[in-house]
Design brief:
The chain has helices at 15-23, 76-89, 108-111, 140-145, 205-209, 213-218, 263-279, 283-309, 311-323, 325-335, 346-358; strands spanning 12-13, 38-40, 42-47, 61-65, 71-73, 100-105, 117-121, 125-128, 131-133, 150-164, 171-177, 180-188, 191-198, 223-238, 242-243, 246-248, 254-255. By secondary structure, it is an alpha+beta fold. The chain has a single domain (1-295), classed as FAD/NAD(P)-binding domain, CATH 3.50.50.
Length: 359
């Protein structure tokens, strides 16, 4: 594997993602140089359900700006290269094309460092005071460390495609239909990223677009830019993310459905918490912090997936948001951490959803 590493990704960083990244010493609003990105002013939900020829269907739309500054759309490969350059500038040594084959705990007497780990790769053996597994959903580090026990709440399939077209909005747009969601992120003055998420695999981006007629209309004159890339998106919680001197981070430590847009923010917040725990020589602190970091995104993910699973609930909820835009704005503030979760806890969201469904 070589930089910059690509991955199926919505390529949008919400304001809380930028704040978490800045807390790590990297201000994406200042450190871009001549790299072109796109400012994101808020979130827009659209019901993109194809109308029946015999029934007039109202497709509600609701939107809310971010309360304290914009987010940013940026190509995944560009972001990866920027973060890599920053790490190298701080003295981090990167060993590319080294595949970890196994790990083994060493005795204190052999290294005079209690809890050290030997990491055997295809090229060399490394000694680690701490070992951090950042190797994704199928983490081998988690398996070898006995941390793979988890609860999976959702599993869906994503497909990402870039389109060469000037963005028609500075909002991230989320199109809802009975076939899943398509979320559109401007990433430059001449390109948008479209991520389709569904319970079933789309054979191609062209096939996916057929289920989102309003979005297809926007993209009618656009050309796909590059090939599409797919992945599986999980809502998954691990029972533990630390053991001994080993810790997990990012998707290896659990994840939320991609429709939340919180994947990168979670990783950045976890990194800050892990750094503090390593400095204090206390991985238990990271275990507690990780649980807190995951809480709101996990609750919001489950709430959004209720809308995906229940068409009637989705239609009524989107209609409610359209009639009460302040409600949508309040939920967005909770989602990005600008309002207390106590105001809109998961139990409250679930009760509200069931009330909408029953009404």
């Amino acid at each position: 594997m070589q930089p910059g590493i690509d991955k199926a990704c919505g390529e949008g960083l919400m304001p809380d993602s930028l704040e978490a990244l800045a807390a790590l010493g990297f201000d994406l609003n200042q450190d871009l140089g001549h790299i072109e990105t796109a400012l994101l002013r808020g979130i827009r939900f659209l019901n993109d359900q194809a109308a029946s020829p015999k029934i007039r269907t109202h497709n509600p739309t609701t939107e809310a700006p971010f309360p304290a500054g914009p987010g940013r759309g940026i190509r995944r490969t560009i972001l990866h290269q920027l973060l890599l350059d920053r790490a190298v500038s701080l003295g981090v040594r990167v060993h590319w094309q080294n595949s970890v084959q196994s790990i083994a705990q060493t005795s204190a007497s052999s290294l005079h460092l209690p809890g050290s780990t030997l990491v055997h790769t295809n090229r060399q053996t490394l000694r680690a005071r701490y070992l951090i597994g950042a190797d994704g959903h199928q983490s081998r580090i988690a398996k070898w460390a006995g941390l793979e026990k988890s609860s999976t709440h959702s599993c869906r399939i994503g497909l990402r495609q870039h389109y060469a077209i000037a963005p028609w909005t500075d909002f991230v747009e989320v199109y809802w239909s009975r076939h899943g969601q398509a979320y559109v992120t401007p990433i430059s003055s001449s390109e948008v990223c479209v991520a389709f998420i569904s319970n079933a695999k789309f054979p191609s981006s062209a096939a996916a677009l057929k289920h989102f007629p309003a979005l297809a209309h926007h993209l009618a004159s656009a050309q796909p830019n590059g090939s599409s890339r797919g992945s599986v998106t999980f809502g998954r919680s691990l029972h533990r993310v630390t053991t001994g001197n080993i810790a997990l981070i990012g998707d290896a430590s659990g994840s939320v459905d991609a429709v939340t847009g919180e994947g990168m923010a979670l990783c950045f917040r976890q990194a800050a918490a892990l750094a503090a725990a390593l400095k204090a020589n206390d991985l238990a602190a990271y275990q507690h912090a990780h649980r807190d970091i995951q809480r709101i995104p996990s609750l919001m993910s489950r709430s959004l997936l209720l809308m995906d699973r229940h068409p009637r609930l989705r239609a009524r909820t989107l209609n409610t948001f359209e009639r009460n835009p302040k409600l949508f704005s309040s939920l967005l503030q909770v989602h990005i951490g600008h309002s207390p979760i106590q105001l809109f806890g998961f139990d409250g969201l679930l009760a509200t959803s069931l009330h909408i469904l029953a009404s």
